[in-house]
Amino acid sequence: MKNVTDSFLSWGHWPSAGSFGFNTDILATNPINLSVVLGVLIFFGKGVLNDLLDNRKQRILSTIRNSEELRKGAIEQLERARTRLRKVEIEADEYRMNGYSEIEREKENLINATCDTLERLENYKNETLHFEQQRAINQVRQRVFQQALQGALGTLNSCLNSELHFRTIRANIGILGAMEEITD
Fold first, then answer.
1. Measured between alpha carbons, how far is 79 from 73 in angstroms, rounded to an integer?
2. DSSP 3-state assignment of 16?
3. Phi and psi for 179 in degrees, rounded to 5?
4. In angstroms, rounded to a whole number, what is the distance separating the alpha carbons of residues 182 and 123?
5. Is residue 52 a part of any domain in this protein?
6. pLDDT tens for residues 5-58?
7. Residue 128 has pLDDT above 70, yes or no
8. Cα-based distances in Å from 178 to 83, 117, 135, 181
9. What is the value of pTM for the model shown?
10. How many domains are contained in the chain?
């Protein structure tokens, strides 16, 4: 390996061109080489670097503008959403109040209907009681009448003898005969 590096660095292989040659002092050649490289880069790379920075600046500004537009759109949407929320809350309050009033109205209607039903049931009960009383009175009357009739028949049977009985039958036949002549 030493032979290869020696062949590049050897003075005999490289023709001497006056004052130009390899300086093997690393500390003296680095700052010079760096300044030459930096000078060339600045001279030739200045336009490219400016173009890159301008492009980057334009992209950043475009991104900022887009962000601002998006922020404004988001703020508008937020305001619309808040407005809609207020409207919905107002409607909900109205529905709630209407619902409460509707519930109260239904409650009153139910109470009134229940009162009407109770009144009808009370009237029906009273009519039923009156009917049952009349039926009971009629049954008592029938029974009293039957008992009175049986008592009268018993009294008549015990008071009538056969001659009185025949006379009554003849009188009734005579009445029936007279009625028959009148109808003819």
1. 10
2. coil
3. -70, -30
4. 54
5. yes
6. 444 444 444 444 456 666 667 666 677 778 888 888 888 878 887 888 899 999
7. yes
8. 110, 63, 41, 5
9. 0.36
10. 1
